[in-house]
Design goal:
The chain is mostly helical. It has 2 domains: 295 residues, Fido-like domain (Fic-like fold); 100 residues, Arc Repressor Mutant, subunit A. A two-stranded antiparallel ribbon has the order 1-2. A hairpin with an 8-residue loop joins strand 3 and strand 4. Helix 7 packs antiparallel against helix 8, helix 11 packs across helix 13 and helix 14 runs antiparallel to helix 15. The radius of gyration is 23 Å and the shape is elongated.
Length: 403
């Protein structure tokens, strides 16, 4: 968390002081990991049916918000996020504030994704400013107070010197120069092999520069998400990987702040070796998340879990609408994407009235979704189903609400 700097321990005010902006050694190792991520991410974008992928993206979007705010120590339970999306806010002021922050993140992410044209454009300082504006511009003044009681102005570069733990970012007057230098380097991004280590480098150097008085972490993670959106398609979340070991994430960021470590550490002011280590860590997180989501969306396993969910619901609630005859059409939805109500009913083999009750119950539970009472049916994934349908994807959603 940033604080106003009472005095300058070391004044960073020249752009050479945060060189290098990209790693230059051992790039083959980073490229090999990048290619593996690209191949697996491409396969993942074609996994399951498009309606199922859309439903997964909604879960991932909630996760992005939850985990990014959790990294900042400002998380709220996933159930509270879901309630806030229905405009159901807690009577507890702090919980309600976190709910508003979570929904603002989700809305900002949707808006920003639509503005992404290229990875290089998303890595620019103008896009970072848009991310900060889009997020904090959705919040009232009472929700934009720093720990010191100062009002965070959406999209405004900081006008004070700050300290972030042991690190003192550049002087506020020099921030535009540092941002311009990053635009110059990251705006040259060409070729797929360099995409992810450039995104990783930009993530760290933006955090190091700390261009806003507050809200840097959230804004930079939104920027990072959008820079990778063309690759990931919203099917996996790097925030999930970063938040699952929050301490290591902060440690790796901190180590990448290190000054040059001798003659073998290239010629920049900061350590190229530690920047490479940060990039290797970041790519490892990405690969782990793509692999995890690929396993999670395995169609055969998802089909089995849909059957388990119906059986468990019937056992847990004792409701007769949870019929085993519904399992086959649910599994067909996972593969085909949509079914008409008539098709779903016929596949159950049940009497029409009974089948309608089954559909009605599944719609009420949120496992089925439809635009209208006549529209086709598709799968959805309510929070309470995730522990069965996607084990370990979003374990916090199954935990008891403690807020």
């Amino acid at each position: 968390m940033a604080s106003i700097a009472p005095e300058k321990v070391m004044a960073f005010d020249s752009v050479h002081q945060f060189e290098p902006l990209l790693p230059v050694q051992r790039l083959d190792e980073l490229r090999d990991i990048t290619r593996a991520i690209f191949e697996k991410a491409a396969a993942l974008r074609n996994a399951a049916s498009e309606p199922v992928r859309d439903a997964v993206r909604e879960v991932v979007r909630s996760m992005n918000s939850y985990y990014s705010n959790l990294i900042e120590g400002q998380g709220t339970h996933p159930i509270n996020i879901e309630r806030a999306l229905r405009m159901d806010f807690s009577t507890k002021p702090d919980v309600a504030r976190r709910q508003r922050l979570a929904t603002a993140h989700i809305e900002a992410e949707i808006e920003l994704e639509q503005r992404v044209t290229t990875e290089a454009a998303a890595l620019g300082s103008a896009f970072l400013q848009e991310a900060h504006q889009s997020l904090y511009g959705r919040l009232g003044e009472q929700d934009r107070l720093s720990d010191e009681g100062r009002v965070i102005v959406p999209g405004e570069w900081r006008k004070v010197d700050v300290r972030v733990g042991r690190h003192q970012p550049p002087t506020w007057e020099s921030v535009p120069r540092f941002l311009a230098r990053m635009d110059e380097i990251y705006g040259r991004l060409k070729g797929l092999d360099a995409v992810l280590y450039t995104v990783a480098s930009a993530h760290h150097r933006m955090m190091w520069t700390h261009p806003f008085e507050d809200g840097n972490g959230r804004a930079v993670r939104l920027q990072t998400h959008c820079a990778m959106h063309l690759l990931g398609g919203g099917m996996w979340s790097v925030n999930r990987g970063l938040a699952r070991d929050r301490q290591r994430y902060y440690l790796m960021l901190d180590e990448a702040d290190s000054m040059r470590q001798g003659d073998l550490d290239r010629r920049g002011n900061l350590s190229e070796k530690m920047l490479w280590q940060w990039c290797r860590y970041f790519l490892g997180v990405c690969l782990d998340q793509v692999d995890f989501m690929t396993r999670t969306l395995d169609l055969e396993q998802l089909s089995e879990r849909l059957g388990s969910w119906v059986v468990l619901q019937r056992s847990r609630l004792g409701a007769t609408e949870y019929r085993e005859e519904a399992i086959l059409p649910l599994q067909m939805l996972a593969a085909a994407g949509t079914l008409s109500r008539g098709e779903f009913s016929r596949m159950t083999g049940l009497e029409e009235r009974t089948a309608r009750k089954v559909i009605s119950r599944l719609l009420k539970d949120g496992l089925l979704a439809s635009q209208s009472h006549r529209d086709s049916l598709r799968l959805a994934f309510p929070l309470e189903s995730l522990s069965v349908l996607f084990p370990n994807l979003y374990p916090e959603a199954a935990a008891a609400v403690e807020d």
